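ARCHIVE CARD
Drawer: 12
Card no.: 0347
Subject: one protein chain, sequence and derived structure
Cross-reference: see card 0346
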Amino acid sequence: MKALKEIGVRRAIRYVMWAVGYHLVYRVLCVSPLRVWWLRMTGARIGVNSVIMDVRFLNLDRGGTRNLRTGRDTFIGDDCLLDMAGQLTLGNQVTLAERVTVLTHTNVGYRDHPLQREFPAMVAAVSIGDGSFIGAGATLLPGVKIGPKTAVGAGAVVTADLIGGVVAVGVPARIIRVLSPET
């Protein structure tokens, strides 16, 4: 009951509706064109020639799929975890390899959690610029902006904005190389 008090009846109903739609419809759609169709029908803006593999969504009750925007020719790999609490924008020709996690919010727990004062709940948009690649298992934290033509290495944790045209790896992600302008 504490959870229901915390989020309210309206959000609880939205949660149930999204859970039913997600698990009974989206999860059954086994090919990308059908997934793209469902996402567009539920409010996402998905660019032409985009491929959406078996992606996991969380917090659909907060922002729904309308918080997802992709450009043309994007690819979102299997088992990616996309947080729909805040806006997630992928530019043209962006690739999210398998098991990438993109978070748009943080919350340590209930309002009375002892760490709420130090780490208040927040929602912040994430954007990834045109022509960028995010390696398998990478994690992007809320509020990060990744510039165009940027490569993030597998397993990296992006905690701050990355300028365009770089390669970043590690935990936390650090720039290790600047790409040539013609890349």
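Annotation on reverse: The chain is about 20% helix and 25% strand. Residues 9-24 form the longest helix (16 residues).
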